[in-house]
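Researcher: Please predict.
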Amino acid sequence: MSDNKPDKVNDLLEAAINNSTQAWDAQSKYFDDFIKRNVAAFATLSDARIESLKAIGESQSFNQAFEANIAYEQTVRDEFRKMREDNERAWIDLEMKLSAIYVTTDNNEESPHH
């Protein structure tokens, strides 16, 4: 005989709905924050580029203009490094949240997704 009594099936369905809702919320927050982080990074880069072009335009020598561009390039490297690190941390956080939702730590319980 099957162990799937109506109460057990109802509990499994409720758990699946709850898990799916929690996962949806976690993923939605991740992607909302991802977009905000990336837009902020590119806004910073845009502002830095405008300032570097102003500095290049006001330069009195080729060396000053070159140094202004080198400074901008360093800003680009730093901003992309920061964005990548922030995105990696956020991804790891999302993985941990999803694991907490779907992976059962109590061996007596069964996840409806396994």
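Model: Residues 32-102 form one domain.
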